[in-house]
Amino acid sequence: MSIEQRKTLYLGNAWLVRQELRYYEPMADEFNVWSGQTATVTFATDAAGANPIANLSALAMAEVVANPGVYYRVVSSALVANLVPYAGQTVYQITSAGSAAELKAVLPVIVAQPRYVNL
């Protein structure tokens, strides 16, 4: 993925993780909503999640009440501060669901210094 296509996570800001989770049902040949289950998000230095970043590992996500199958987690600016050493680098946001992480979504994110606008 080119650098222009990656999401940017600005240090000093909270970060919203939002993920719709669906699983494939071969008997019906369709994707069903993964609802009422558990989901977590981890930030790691590799796409496999083998090197999670301190304090940003297996953060519990909540399901959106009005939209089953959509999970979210607000990562506070205090937790995002753990990414300061990774400024200018790509880290991976990994959303996992299920007891054995049956479902997994990986998003490369560029960590950037805060941008401030004078109003």
Explained architecture:
There is one protein chain. By secondary structure, the chain is mainly beta. It is 3% helix and 44% strand. It has one helix at 77-80, and strands at residues 7-10, 15-20, 22-25, 30-33, 39-44, 59-60, 62-63, 70-75, 90-97, 103-112. The protein has a five-stranded mixed sheet, with no helix packed on it. The chain is elongated, with a radius of gyration of 15 Å. The model has no long low-confidence stretch (mean pLDDT 90).
Present the secondary structure layout.
Layout: E1 7-10, E2 15-20, E3 22-25, E4 30-33, E5 39-44, E6 59-60, E7 62-63, E8 70-75, H1 77-80, E9 90-97, E10 103-112
Parallel strand pairs: 1-10
Antiparallel strand pairs: 2-8, 3-4, 5-6, 5-9, 7-8, 9-10
Mean pLDDT: 90
What fraction of residues sit in β-strands?
35-45%
Element-by-element helix/strand order = EEEEEEEEHEE
Secondary-structure-derived class:
mainly beta
| Number of beta strands | 10
Shape type: elongated
Largest sheet: 5 strands, mixed
Query: In whole angstroms, how far apart are the ends?
Result: 34 Å
